[in-house]
Amino acid sequence: TAVVGEIEISDAVIPSSGEGSAVSEPSRATTKVLATPVARKMAKDLGVDISTVKGTGPQGRVMKADIQAAADTKAPSDGAKAPSADTS
Amino acid sequence: MKTYDVIVVGGGPGGYVAAIKASQLGSKVALIEGDRIGGVCLNYGCIPTKTLLRSAKLYQDLMISESFGIDIENLSDVKINWDNLMKRKDTVVNKIVGGVEQLVKYNKIDVFKGYGHATDAHTVVVGEETLSAKNLILATGSSVLIPSIPGIDDAVTAGYVIDSTGAIKLPKQPNSITILGGGVIAIEFATLFNSLGTKVTILQRSDTILKNLDADVRTTIQRHLTDTGVEIVTNSSISRVDNGTVHYTHEGKELSVTSDIILASLGRTPNLKGFEPLGIKVDKRGVVVDEHMQTNVKGVYAIGDMCGKMMLAHVASAEGIVAAEAIHGDKTSINYHKVPSCIYSFPEVGVIGYSEEAAIEAGYDVGTSMFPLSANGKAVAEGETTGFVKIVHDKKYGEVIGVHIVASHATDMIAEAAVSMELEGTIYDIAKTVHPHPTLSEIVMEAAHGAVDKPIHIIKR
Amino acid sequence: MKTYDVIVVGGGPGGYVAAIKASQLGSKVALIEGDRIGGVCLNYGCIPTKTLLRSAKLYQDLMISESFGIDIENLSDVKINWDNLMKRKDTVVNKIVGGVEQLVKYNKIDVFKGYGHATDAHTVVVGEETLSAKNLILATGSSVLIPSIPGIDDAVTAGYVIDSTGAIKLPKQPNSITILGGGVIAIEFATLFNSLGTKVTILQRSDTILKNLDADVRTTIQRHLTDTGVEIVTNSSISRVDNGTVHYTHEGKELSVTSDIILASLGRTPNLKGFEPLGIKVDKRGVVVDEHMQTNVKGVYAIGDMCGKMMLAHVASAEGIVAAEAIHGDKTSINYHKVPSCIYSFPEVGVIGYSEEAAIEAGYDVGTSMFPLSANGKAVAEGETTGFVKIVHDKKYGEVIGVHIVASHATDMIAEAAVSMELEGTIYDIAKTVHPHPTLSEIVMEAAHGAVDKPIHIIKR
Ligand SMILES: Cc1cc2nc3c(=O)[nH]c(=O)nc-3n(C[C@H](O)[C@H](O)[C@H](O)COP(=O)(O)OP(=O)(O)OC[C@H]3O[C@@H](n4cnc5c(N)ncnc54)[C@H](O)[C@@H]3O)c2cc1C
Ligand SMILES: Cc1cc2nc3c(=O)[nH]c(=O)nc-3n(C[C@H](O)[C@H](O)[C@H](O)COP(=O)(O)OP(=O)(O)OC[C@H]3O[C@@H](n4cnc5c(N)ncnc54)[C@H](O)[C@@H]3O)c2cc1C
């Protein structure tokens, strides 16, 4: 029989062989916060712990408006504004 | 001896992008190229094939122009001018290669013409020159693999068997072509020649073309190719080549097919010659690298086709940027599950992430939703209704983990999926996004609606 | 008297989608339509124009097929078959309208044929029937506005002046056409007729066509139309119409243009007849609604063109879903700054969000980045290099707030921007997303790179 190369150029998907998929297997064990990039940046900026914010976007995604609202409600009482480390 | 911060060997889409990025980040960069800047992609791959496919699509549309209300008195007055086809391809390639040469120059990169070889991890010799640098980026690409089939060497010598580089510069249009292999490149050439009126036969060893793609994509493309006249023989085992004749067995029968030209598209192998002294680790896919593209040898990086991860130009470029950034101290990486790939068949294919099968295998709680192109207004208006979109999602959060599009503009459409996945978008986000009417992209939204609940524009029982 | 949960008046893309969504959410729904299901969009707007434009594009490509390596012995043997063009358009429209009729039926919606009028907020009369419902969704759309120009009424009667509905069913191809107005519809018809070889003149009152669009888009399209033979007269004031002749003043001079046909594309006005008893508030754009599409009258909703927010089919549909959801108790809304709109010119236009001017006016700290299509490999391969992408972002977090694309496939490409903006994506996210090569979508990534720092593929001084 013909010897056919292992490697096919521009082959669309990485085969699920060990080495290939090990590169980038996502870690799916942890619960994550669905949030938009802008919301995350804003949370860091305004010292809001994003994991405590209830998202109003699709499927509870935290949107920038949610962070703004969280920052607005805590701002008057909370003068210290400890910046949150959570930037997941 | 000339000293640099970074030496890049190979000027393809991996190497030249790595060189530009490294230079933009402040490194002094040398780029060594033995052939032409642009590599396989610009000179023999992506660009020439897409240029020819553009003409082929026009020819195909022209043949059915009557159905669009445009009459051509004598269709036999319409002729493919092979010389002009080739000339246009060369013009396009030269223009783009010239542009990249300008870019490289503008970015103050020293270019050395010639094939380089390394004497150690910091020294590369090219012609009379010896260059030294702290970091080395290898980007030498891959070459066609001609398998050892009895008779094939003679047939190559006699000009019957060619590779993709030969296929884009044929002196005249073949009446018939046999394509060995059923990967992406094979399918693009099948599309090209079939549309231009050449009789095309595909001999595929396994039971399907385009293996690793989602089953729905595979079967749709296979059926469409067959419907438009391409002969596809799966489960075929080639026994011997005799000039233009390929002998093969299929379902226990000894068969043969004779054609003007045989295109071998059976795989590629990494270009490693001249780098043996480095002792870099290689497995059966290619050079082994960590997530920042560094090989087992410190300061030696490898990117692109030679690593064999996903043999695509944009992957080579993205890896080039990762390598340049790593050298600069920025540790970035690529999630290959978020990298799109395309087939420029008619209709086109654009896919990203997990196929349904692969997602199940990876342990996701998989949901899928499909929406056919035939229910899309723009597709009907354009008269191109073969295709669909299929969204694969993780039921946990509704995160989109795979998108598979077959549609006339699928290669443009897949960017929406890529950016959605980069942003960890869910089916809810895509469903909520207002898509313009009438566009093919509406099917993406409809499929997302279908995944969430109910699509508007289909009868779903 | 028949009783429903929801009565929808008008079966265009606003009304039929609202009806289907309401039914999917469990309501008993009546849909009243005086003409054909599908409204302006399917019958006289989006679909027929795009069907004709498909043929026009093919004809245009065919005229330059030699440059693609395809020879046609006698270009004069290529003829537009106007009857077949019209037949194809009708076939496409009927197919899609038939599909929507099926959908409506499948979703168990009672359809009443005829023009309805309301006697109060819960009662609609159509023909012999009186229907009652707790909620009313008005979706009656808009009609062409023929301005009062001396002589225009006679010219309408004589068949010289037509509207867009007339323009898609001309009995034969005009040799020349004068288009009054420079909005999206005007530009699409200019593209259509110009590509088919009709002499086109546009008379525009203000100093630019396509006002409200980003200045770079406007000038690119205006220049391209002019370059391809369309005569555009801006700052023109029409004084009188005399059969096929339009008299106008331009830069103080009295001028005139005579053509076979005059297309009036000067605006549209909401269809409100029959709903006067409801006392709904209307301003100069149309019916006034809150963010859930409710009018000032409780239980009476209005959607689509009659509200005059963005006169687009996908906006009407999205508003229909919002209204149906509001009735069902889900308070959703639309952010109109995240709704794309398209122009099917050659090249196409796809835009979303703020133009540079509008963003500055709105008080953003505006950053912009442009990347030209001429530096894109796929565009060169396709021979269609007119265009660019322009990304407008808020410098604070890099959020993308506007994307403006001119490119042959811009209408497909804008979906990427739409989903990015829906997910509050930044220029960093788009730059990081691996885009497939070679595609037009790479320019989006390059522009994002340019916004962040430096693009790879351009000489940026
Ligand atoms: C027909 C065809 C069509 C394709 N279409 C597409 C497509 O549409 N989209 C897509 O994404 N991909 C496509 N590909 C794949 C794409 O071309 C490759 O993935 C891409 O070129 C890999 O880039 P690279 O930089 O790793 O290597 P290459 O592009 O192969 O470049 C390597 C360069 O290194 C030079 N070189 C090698 N050894 C040395 C040395 N010792 N010293 C100096 N120089 C050296 C070579 O001359 C070459 O120029 C196609 C490939 C083919 C064959
Ligand atoms: C030439 C042209 C091209 C266009 N191209 C595009 C495009 O490419 N993309 C895009 O997004 N938009 C396009 N538009 C705009 C688009 O057609 C409208 O925005 C869309 O149709 C509005 O939908 P609607 O449901 O609000 O109203 P309509 O589509 O106007 O539907 C209203 C319906 O209500 C019916 N009706 C009215 N009064 C009554 C009554 N009293 N009783 C019963 N029925 C009634 C009418 O018969 C009609 O069918 C185009 C428009 C034109 C004119």
Automatic annotation (TrEMBL), chains B, C:
The answer to whether the entry has keyword Glycoprotein is no
What broad class of enzyme is this? oxidoreductase
Q: Which InterPro entries match?
A: Class-I_Pyr_Nuc-Dis_Oxidored, FAD/NAD-bd_sf, FAD/NAD-binding_dom, FAD/NAD-linked_Rdtase_dimer_sf, Lipoamide_DH, Pyr_nuc-diS_OxRdtase, Pyr_nucl-diS_OxRdtase_dimer, Pyr_OxRdtase_I_AS
Known catalytic reactions: N(6)-[(R)-dihydrolipoyl]-L-lysyl-[protein] + NAD(+) = N(6)-[(R)-lipoyl]-L-lysyl-[protein] + NADH + H(+)
Q: Give the co-factor note.
A: Binds 1 FAD per subunit.
Source organism superkingdom: Bacteria
Listed Gene3D superfamilies = 3.30.390.30, FAD/NAD(P)-binding domain
What PROSITE patterns is this protein classified in?
PYRIDINE_REDOX_1
EC number, as in UniProt: 1.8.1.4
Subcellular localization, per the record? Cytoplasm
Q: What is its main location?
A: cytoplasm
Please provide, alphabetically and separated by semicolons, the GO molecular function terms listed in this UniProt record: dihydrolipoyl dehydrogenase (NADH) activity
The cofactors named for this UniProt entry are: FAD
Q: Which NCBIfam families match?
A: lipoamide_DH
Q: What more does the entry say?
A: The active site is a redox-active disulfide bond.
Q: Which family does it belong to?
A: Belongs to the class-I pyridine nucleotide-disulfide oxidoreductase family.
Q: What is this protein called?
A: Dihydrolipoyl dehydrogenase
